[in-house]
User: Fold RNA polymerase sigma24 factor from Terrabacter tumescens.
Amino acid sequence: MLHDEASEADTLERLRLAALDGDPHAVDDLVRALEPLVMRRCAKFLPHRADAEEACQDALVAVATKLRSFSGAGSFVGWVTVIASNSARSTYRSLKRRGSEQAVAVLPEALDPRTTSVMAGSRVDLMEALEAMEAAKPHLVESFVLRDLGQLPYDEVAEITGVPLGTAKARIHDARAFMRGHLVERLA
Assistant:
């Protein structure tokens, strides 16, 4: 871990403990300190800044309200990454639903969500591939998201998902193969 990352993790842990001890300003300070990290995580999933900001705000509210539910399995940053990833995926699904509803209302043949203005670019393909993997191989999704999108180390992915390190690595490998196949298939 780089010095800056270690320092950031130490600061976040200190703020988390202060919030749990009842410091009235610590939750606000923690949320402010987490915002850049959560925004970076959400932006990996969502192509438009406003959408990523929406997911970021939802994630930060979830972190603040569920702070006591952090069990200590994995790092606090890993736990926040899970919340941010889930929030971004939820926002994507909501945007996709709204885009489909708007397309039906305006132009019935525009049911393909790639044609809506709220979703364009390679991140949409990534989200569609994630949805396909969630439908076909749901046990692979969390490990893939934590490692490749959340940039967590393998050992932390294993700890968060509650599987042995070898299993976590195998799931990530299988997920990458699935994603590669799905994305290549879409390009063809």
